[in-house]
Amino acid sequence: MSHSKLTASQLLNLAVVTVTASLGDTLLARGMKSLGPVSIHHLGELLHAILTPWVGAGIVVLIGFFASYLTALSWADLTYVLPATSIGYVIMALLGHFWLHEYVSAWRWLGIVFITAGVGFVARGPSYTETASPAEEVEEVPQA
Amino acid sequence: MSHTHSLLWDTLMIGAIVLWATAGDVLIASALRKIGDLDRIRAVSGIPGAALAVLSSPRFAFGVVCMALSFFSLLFALSHGDLTLIGPAAASLTFVTNAVAAKFFLGENVDRRRWLAAVFVCIGVALLAH
Q1: Which of A57, A141, B107, B127 could make an SS bond with A111 (beta carbons 3.0 to 4.6 A apart)?
Q2: Coiled-coil annotation: which residues (chain B) (predicted)?
């Protein structure tokens, strides 16, 4: 059995997942590019990267992403949450085109069409697969 | 670095990101499914109660370790490779590997609609790299 109706707060939660994932990745990329290549023999430099402003800001945003992502996974399937929140890629491309006046190639427009169609497929379906014995209360998980 | 060597290096880095991300996603989704609706728990026990419910789950802890390994794999890859290749390739492949893993490890009802969604988003993200 499955159910599909999401409340307004659950939809807002999915929107937060979408925005924070895109923004966090962008901040990380900006920070790592300014640091330059990290040698495989000096992986400790990755820990140093965490303390830099761009990477640090990215991590803060990604913590917000993680909290909202966990909440979404507690009432929706993984195979629902991931495609549904991928609309963030489309938002970033559209912002780049209309706000930053970046060139968006025909391939990218085609990519936007594919992602939008994929989001449409999953959004019209059920959000959660009920298991035989759904957990109703907090409990320890016996094993990993 | 030769073209073949570079391609192998990129493939290994992308593979590591996808592997750890998929393992992390499945373990965390499994833990949250076991714990139950966090909104409901928060309504009863508040944010500390919801946080305790999540943090006391060993499966969640394993999932976080896998996500951390994926995160550092991504940082390492971003410092070497091209963001326009690494980012979309890892992200798009993860949609498909997660769909497979969710079906077999989480028992999710991955019907034709969800397969189509995973494949369409995978193709779309890959096209964004062009």
Answers
A1: B127
A2: none
ipTM: 0.83
Residue A36's H or E segment, with its range, is none
The residue with tokens 């979408």 is: A18
CB distance B74–A28 less than 8 Å? yes
Give Dmax over CA atoms of chain A in angstroms. 53
Find out whether A2 and A129 touch, Cβ atoms under 8 Å. Answer: yes
List B residues 92-121 in contact with A (Cβ-Cβ < 8 A). 94-95, 98-99, 102-103, 106-111, 113-114, 116-121
DSSP A5: P
Q: Tens of pLDDT along A39-73?
A: 777 777 778 888 889 889 999 999 999 899 999 99
Of A80, A125, A141, the CB nearest to B59: A141
Q: Which of B83, B110, B80, B87 is nearest to B21 (CA)?
A: B87
* 3-class SS of residue A104: coil
Please count the residues of chain B: 130
Model confidence, pTM: 0.78
Q: What is the count of residue pairs from A and B with beta carbons less than 8 Å apart?
A: 184
Residue A20 lies in domain: 2-129
